Amino acid sequence: MKAYLRAGAVLALTAVVATSPEAQQRPTKPGSDVHNITISCFRGPTSSVIWDRPNAVFVEDLVRMGYTYPEAHAIGERICRDEWGVGQHDYMRSSLLQIVAKTPPSH
Predict the structure, then answer these.
(1) Is residue 18 a part of any domain in this protein?
(2) Per the structure, how many domains does the chain have?
(3) Looking at the domain assignment, is residue 5 inside a domain?
(4) How far is the C-alpha of 31 from the C-alpha of 1, rounded, in Å?
(5) Cystine design at 66: which of 78, 93, 99, 105 (Cβ 3.0–4.6 Å)?
(6) How many Å apart are CA 30 and CA 12, to the nearest integer?
């Protein structure tokens, strides 16, 4: 009986977390604005950045901006694997702006 109660509590908590406003947010639709870059990174199961990598929407936005795929992926890796950027969205944004200013896309 206790196992059923625990399972029910876990399912109820999962439903609350899955329907929270944070879980419902979606990234910007790719291709909607050439100057809108969605910084989206996969964060692994650990607090270190060993699994972290850029999500496709991030790389695609950079390609759409004018970078080649290898350049866009390298920029995404640089932003997503920076330990100082974990949980620091303003830092990630300012780092990306610095990179774009120093190395603009070569249309």
Answers:
(1) no
(2) 1
(3) no
(4) 52
(5) 105
(6) 33
Contacts of 16 (CB under 8 A, 6+ apart): none
b/e sequence 26-52, b meaning 16+ C-beta within 10 Å: eeeebeeeeeebbbbbeeeeeeebeeb
Tell me whether residue 67 is in a domain. Answer: yes
Name the token pair of 1.
């009986």
Alpha carbon distance 75, 60 (integer Å): 12
Domain carrying residue 92: 26-102
Asked, for residue 8, whether it belongs to a domain, the answer is no
Block means of pLDDT (10 residues each) for the chain, 107 residues, are 46 40 51 77 84 94 94 96 90 95 88
Question: How far apart, in whole angstroms, are the C-alpha atoms of residue 91 and residue 98?
Answer: 11
